[in-house]
Every structure is written in structure tokens, then in C-alpha cells.
Amino acid sequence: MAPSASLLLLPLISLFSLIFTAAVSESTIQLPTAASHHLPTAASHHHDGAVAYDDDVYCDSWRLSVETNNAGDLASNKPLRCRQYVEDYMTGIGIQADSDMLAYAALAYAKTVDIAGDGKDAWVFDLDETLLTNLPYFRDYEFGYKTVNLTAYFDWVEMAVAPAFPASLKLYNELKELGFALIIISGRGEAQRSATERNLVNAGFTGWDRLLFGEKADTGLQMRELKSKKRLQLVKEGYRLHANYSHQWCSLVGEAMATKSFKFPNPMYYVP
Ligand SMILES: *[C@@H]1O[C@H](CO)[C@@H](O)[C@H](O)[C@H]1NC(C)=O
Ligand SMILES: *[C@@H]1O[C@H](CO)[C@@H](O)[C@H](O)[C@H]1NC(C)=O
């Protein structure tokens, strides 16, 4: 391997091994990279008293409990019988309808916010599985039912071709029109900044105010700690956080609470 190539790869490799270690030891520590929350745990059978229902009914209930953050260990340990349901939801009209509804509610709320005009009225977006969808990647991993390959994930990120969720792109542009400072807090690492910026632009997102990534100093933080840290930093900088828009509850709790939170649907994986 040429020296320049190995230098380039070094941060990714060390990131990979650290994430991997955290994952196999089932540590609660998560690295601040998107990859760390792309590690679905193995699905398993559950004795949850609901076996009598048809899969569609059962899996609707299961998904509702995940989205409302009530699912407990069923959030990470997805029921095996819902594998097809998750695929159908993610590839069909289900997530489209839900994300349209969510964006509609978010815009209605956004219109009630007084924009001061000093550029500090902020709307915080999560990145992966909220603005961008990694669905083409997850197809190879049974929509979260098969353990992901992190090397392949980093390759996918470098391709910068993750599509936008149409409802999120539309909302993003409407918020920009309204005068919000658009802030993206990503669980990806700084090493992925340039690919991520390219991807956002490819997918139609422009004009963000801040795009924040996990940094070296954040290594070892859980995702919720990382997101809280970034939000507190924003508040110190004078931003008023009016809303959170994320596919993970861990990004919607913690300190520096925004006025309102919007949970974007994601039955594929759960970050504790
Ligand atoms: C993971 O993906 C990389 C890159 O695509 C590939 O070279 C490697 O063989 C894969 N590892 C496994 C265990 O499948
Ligand atoms: C919503 O997002 C903001 C910004 O990410 C964050 O500070 C907050 O903790 C999240 N949740 C709530 C309830 O505000």
C-alpha cells in the first residue's frame, strides 16, 4: 500500500477497530460515528404474549412501541417475525406517508415560531436516516436484520450517493425560506466530512448553517452524550434551539432541550 493511502486510511481503520470492540463487548459506549449506530443487534425470538396476532398486526404494534420509545429491549432486539414487515415499511408507502405527516406537523409548528432575524433561530436535524436514507446500503443487510459490515459502510459513505428522504428535503427547504438557521448534528466522524458534504449537495441539501460531526475529543461518548454536547455548544454560541428532528430517541433527550422534538420513523435500528 502506498504511504499516502495508508495515511488516509488510518483514521478509518482505528475508528473501525474501536467501534468493533465496543460492539462485540456489548459495551454501552458508542463512538461518535454513524457507523456505531448502524450495528443492529441480532434479532431473536420473544415470548411477549403477542404471538396470537397476525404478523401485520403484531408488527404494527411493535413499530408503534419503538417509535414512542416504549419498546424496551424489543427496540434493539427486533422480532424475527417482523423482518418482512420492516422491509415492506422501508421500501413501500409506509415510511413515505409517515414522513409526510411528520413534516406537515413540523412545518405547522415552524410557522408559529417568531424568527428574530439575527440568524440564531435554529432547527436541528439529524443526518442519517433523517435527512438522508442509507436504504440502498441496508438492503444488503436485510434492513437491519443482518449485522452490518463497517468497511462496506465507510465505502458507501465515501460514494456520497445516499438519497434524500423527499419529505425531509421539502421541509428543510421550507424552513430555510422561513429563516431558520439549519443545523445538522451528525453521528458521523470528522473523517467523513467532505464525503458527507458532497452527499448532502448531491441529494439537494444546501445552505446549512452548521454541520457538526463527532471529533477526536468525543471518542467514547455515547450518542446521546455526543448530541447533548453539540447542542450545549450551540446554545453557548447563542442559538435558540426551536426543534429537533431525529430518527433516534437518544438524539431527542438530554441537555439543551429544544422547544419541540420530532421523531422521524426508523424501525431498522435503535440506538440506546
Ligand atoms: C466487508 O466489506 C469489505 C469491503 O466491501 C469486504 O472486502 C469484506 O470482505 C467484507 N467483510 C465481510 C466479513 O464480509
Ligand atoms: C431536540 O433537539 C435539540 C437539538 O438537537 C436537543 O437539544 C434536544 O435535547 C432535543 N430534544 C428535546 C426534547 O429538545
From TrEMBL:
<keyword id="KW-0758">Storage protein</keyword>
<keyword id="KW-0732">Signal</keyword>
<feature type="signal peptide">
    <location>
        <begin position="1"/>
        <end position="23"/>
    </location>
</feature>
<dbReference type="InterPro" id="IPR014403">
    <property type="entry name" value="APS1/VSP"/>
</dbReference>
<dbReference type="InterPro" id="IPR023214">
    <property type="entry name" value="HAD_sf"/>
</dbReference>
<comment type="function">
    <text>May function as somatic storage protein during early seedling development.</text>
</comment>
<protein>
    <recommendedName>
        <fullName>Acid phosphatase</fullName>
    </recommendedName>
</protein>
<dbReference type="Pfam" id="PF03767">
    <property type="entry name" value="Acid_phosphat_B"/>
</dbReference>
<dbReference type="GO" id="GO:0045735">
    <property type="term" value="F:nutrient reservoir activity"/>
</dbReference>
<dbReference type="InterPro" id="IPR005519">
    <property type="entry name" value="Acid_phosphat_B-like"/>
</dbReference>
<dbReference type="InterPro" id="IPR036412">
    <property type="entry name" value="HAD-like_sf"/>
</dbReference>
<keyword id="KW-0325">Glycoprotein</keyword>
<comment type="similarity">
    <text>Belongs to the APS1/VSP family.</text>
</comment>
